[in-house]
């Protein structure tokens, strides 16, 4: 007997896309009109068919999930993640294939499903709990924990329409977090709430999986996935791309995401708009530990970050300065930067300069960062060329190597020393 | 563990459906509870609405009946005659129209959570039933004011109420399922309700139709196809007694139609149910 708790076999889901008819629903009027038209006019049936296109949101997907696995489902927008979760949650039926689920599954595709704005917090806890599949007794037993976790004691009898959006989300997540199914299916719910609450949620989800429950988790927050999940499934265009341990999945996903290569002509006009073009980058790549090209621009926390650049001088200029900035993905503010003179000597057109940049391991904390590279004159007062996210430079990804928050939190590691220690 | 085994396949008849429906009875209860709670929030006279609406209808229908001198059985006041018809009619019209719109109104639930979809229209019918019980107080008050004492036949009333529930459920389920795909039915629902108000025996009694000397037999037959005729005649028979004898063939016809509607409604609803989340 295998211990797989979810077994998906050759699952496919087809949608019909209607190109001309952008209306969300059909009107009987239109159906009748089209039928009548098609009787009189053979042409219109052909037109009609042309405007319909089959779209396979999922195509022959098979995988198994074992009891206690925490599986992250990753993929770009439109890869079929949400469709998969909807089928697993029995909201939509598949077109082909078969799924066997052994156990009580609860899905959380949205926080606060069925919340009614006119009802009080207390009433919504009962309503939402029962929508998520809890019995009245279960909700009563968990009631204290739920309000405690959400921190809304004071507002229990206030209609939720008067809640701040933060309170609303906290209450909603708190109810969901106290579900106790064998299998928990979660879609992108951590994308809401403040950072602190997100952390709390993540911790709660970890607790849930610690109790031997199976978790299926879809998120674009790759850091959350990498800390929470032990297994992964990468979906690409409706098919399973990778079904393996989470590290391998993340690596493959980055590969999928950024098949990026930079060359001299990449977004040239954009770069020239912002700089004087006296010299230009001809190569910018990140390096694997063995010296090969790291196409994913992702590093493990315990690896040195290495980048290689090549520049070409277009017009005579007075030396070369290299500048790099590291920006927080959401923050849009600089976390730290580097400026260094590569050469103070005058350069002639046609000269080539190449160099590598190394940032020692364990300095940049796990997460995703925007990079910004520029070259300029020796004083750093005028700039020759720039590469950044605007010209599709990939984001820098640092993967965690442990669960320890003291290695994962924040952005950078600072040097410190403890001296004059005395224990008496 | 095999107790919870779920197999998801396209187009298979789900043998666990009715068991699932039972397992989700808590949700059924909470949805009804929500609708009752929400209904009269931020209203001035609150729950009085479920009295005010039938009361006004009774008034108008009484006036119409009086104006056209419709027959009133001996020993019964006209107001009682109208009241016994208005209450089941109000129940039918509100539960039918709310059940029909219930899926659309709860589309956010349908696309995010699994549960047997039958719960949604069914719970709206329950809400209307609660309204019915509140408005039933009107009938009791009228009976007291007109010194009318019903006889033992009033014990049959729950049977006719059940018939009203069956009728509104059957039609409601059918239209609700259609409404998900074809929003035309949104416009049809108020029309059906309005139309029904005139063709059902509310301001007059059924005997006026069945005993009409010149009305062709075909019209009488068509009249008996209206399931609400059976419900209203049943209400009148059990409350007003003696003189309002039920016209049996017409009554049986109404019952048959009601039950047919229920089966067709459930069958169609179940057939369409799986695609609700895709098309809503």
Please characterize this protein's 3D structure.
The complex is a heterodimer of chains A (424) and B (280). Chain A is α/β, with parallel strands linked by helices and 424 residues long. In chain A, 27% of the residues lie in helices and 34% in strands. Chain A has 2 domains: 4-16 and 32-255, P-loop containing nucleotide triphosphate hydrolases (Rossmann fold); 268-408, Distorted Sandwich (Coagulation Factor XIII, Chain A, domain 1), CATH 2.70.50.60. In chain A, the strands form 4 sheets. Chain A has a 6-stranded mixed beta sheet with strand order 5-6-7-3-8-9, sandwiched between helices. In chain A, strands 11, 13, 14, 16, 17 and 18 form a 6-stranded mixed beta sheet that branches. In chain A, strand 13 (317-328) and strand 14 (334-347) form a beta hairpin. The longest helix of chain A is centred in the middle third of the chain and has 16 residues, at 195-210. Chain A is globular, with a radius of gyration of 27 Å. Chain B is mainly α and 280 residues long. Chain B has one domain (19-279). Chain B has 13 helices and 1 strand. The mean pLDDT of chain B is 87. The chains are: A alpha/beta (424), B mainly alpha (280). Chain A binds chain B through residues 15, 25-29, 31, 86-105, 107, 109-110, 113-114, 116, 118-119, 123, 126-127, 130-136, 159, 182, and chain B through 1-2, 4-11, 24, 26-27, 29-31, 33-34, 37-38, 41-42, 106, 108-115, 181-185, 274-275, 277-280.
Report the order of strands and helices of chain B.
EHHHHHHHHHHHHH
Enumerate how many helices of chain B there are, as a single number.
13
Overall number of strands of chain B? 1
CATH superfamily annotation of the largest domain in chain A? P-loop containing nucleotide triphosphate hydrolases
CATH topology of the largest domain in chain A: Rossmann fold
The biggest sheet of chain A, with number of strands, parallel, antiparallel or mixed sense and barrel status, is:
6 strands, mixed
Ranges of chain A where pLDDT stays below 50 over 5 or more residues in a row are 44-49
Overall SS class of chain B:
mainly alpha
Oligomerization category of the chains in this entry: heterodimer
Query: Largest sheet of chain B at a glance?
Result: none
Average pLDDT number of chain A: 82
**What would CATH call the class of the largest domain in chain A?**
Alpha Beta
* Estimated structural class of chain A: alpha/beta
Distance between the termini of chain B: 34 Å
Radius of gyration of chain B: 20 Å
Tally of DSSP β-strands of chain A:
18
Mean pLDDT of chain B: 87
């Amino acid at each position: 007997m295998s211990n797989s708790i979810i077994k998906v076999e050759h699952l496919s889901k087809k949608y019909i896309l209607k190109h001309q008819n952008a209306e969300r629903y059909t009107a009987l009027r239109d159906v009748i009109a089209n039928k009548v038209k098609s009787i009189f006019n053979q042409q219109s049936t052909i037109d009609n068919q042309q405007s319909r296109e089959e779209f396979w949101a999922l195509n022959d997907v098979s995988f198994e999930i074992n009891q206690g696995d925490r599986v992250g489902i990753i993929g770009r927008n439109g890869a079929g993640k949400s469709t998969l979760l909807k089928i697993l949650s029995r909201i939509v039926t598949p077109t082909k294939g078969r799924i066997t689920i052994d156990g009580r599954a609860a899905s959380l595709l949205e926080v606060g499903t069925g919340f009614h704005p006119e009802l009080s917090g207390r009433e919504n806890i009962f309503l939402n709990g029962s929508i998520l599949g809890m019995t009245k007794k279960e909700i009563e037993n968990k009631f204290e924990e739920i309000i405690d976790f959400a921190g809304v004691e004071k507002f229990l009898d206030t209609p939720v329409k008067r809640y701040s959006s933060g309170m609303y989300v906290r209450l909603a997540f708190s109810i969901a977090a106290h579900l106790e199914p064998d299998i928990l299916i979660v879609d992108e719910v951590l994308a809401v709430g403040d950072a602190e609450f997100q952390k709390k949620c993540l911790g709660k989800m970890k607790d849930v999986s610690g109790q031997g429950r199976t978790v299926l988790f879809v998120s674009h927050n790759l850091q959350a996935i990498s800390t929470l999940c032990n297994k992964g499934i990468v979906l690409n265009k409706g098919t399973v791309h990778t079904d393996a341990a989470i590290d391998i999945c993340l690596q493959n996903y980055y590969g999928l995401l950024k098949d990026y290569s930079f060359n001299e002509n990449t977004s040239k006009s954009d770069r020239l708009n912002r700089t004087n073009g006296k010299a230009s980058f001809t190569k910018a790549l990140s390096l694997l530990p063995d010296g090969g090209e790291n196409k994913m621009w992702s590093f493990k926390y315990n690896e040195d970050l290495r980048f290689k650049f090549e520049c070409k001088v277009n017009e005579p200029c007075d030396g070369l300065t290299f500048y790099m900035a590291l920006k927080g993905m959401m923050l849009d503010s600089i976390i730290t930067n580097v400026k260094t003179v590569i050469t103070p000597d005058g350069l002639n057109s046609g000269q080539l300069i190449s160099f590598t940049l190394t940032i020692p391991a364990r300095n940049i904390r796990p997460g995703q960062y925007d990079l910004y590279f520029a070259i300029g004159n020796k004083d750093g007062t005028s700039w020759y060329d720039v590469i950044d996210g605007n010209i599709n430079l990939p984001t820098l990804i640092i993967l965690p190597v442990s669960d320890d928050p003291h290695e994962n939190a924040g952005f950078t590691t600072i040097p410190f020393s403890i001296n004059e220690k005395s224990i008496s | 563990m095999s107790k919870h085994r779920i197999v998801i396949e396209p187009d298979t008849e789900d043998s666990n459906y009715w068991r699932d429906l039972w397992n989700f009875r808590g949700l059924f209860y909470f949805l009804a509870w929500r609708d009752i709670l929400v209904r009269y929030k931020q209203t001035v006279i609150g729950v009085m609405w479920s009295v005010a609406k039938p009361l006004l209808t009774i008034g108008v229908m009484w006036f119409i009946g009086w104006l056209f001198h419709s027959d009133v059985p001996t020993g019964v006041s006209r107001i009682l005659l109208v009241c016994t018809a208005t209450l089941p009619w109000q129940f039918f019209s509100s539960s039918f129209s709310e059940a029909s719109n219930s899926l659309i109104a709860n589309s956010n639930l349908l696309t995010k959570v699994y549960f047997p979809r039958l719960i949604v229209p069914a719970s709206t019918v329950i809400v209307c039933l609660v309204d019915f019980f509140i408005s039933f107080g009107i009938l009791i008050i009228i009976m007291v004011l007109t010194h009318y004492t019903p006889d033992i036949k009033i014990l049959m009333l729950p049977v006719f109420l059940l018939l009203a529930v069956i009728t509104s459920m059957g039609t409601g389920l059918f239209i609700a399922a259609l409404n998900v795909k074809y929003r035309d039915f949104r416009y049809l629902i108020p029309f059906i309700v309005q139309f029904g108000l005139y063709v059902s025996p509310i301001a007059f009694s059924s005997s006026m139709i069945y005993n009409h000397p010149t009305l062709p037999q075909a019209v009488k037959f068509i009249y008996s196809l209206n399931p609400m005729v059976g419900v209203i005649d049943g209400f009148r028979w059990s409350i007003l007694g003696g003189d309002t004898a039920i016209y049996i063939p017409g009554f049986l016809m109404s019952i048959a139609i009601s039950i047919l509607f229920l089966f067709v409604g459930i069958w169609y609803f179940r057939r369409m149910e799986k695609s609700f989340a895709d098309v809503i």
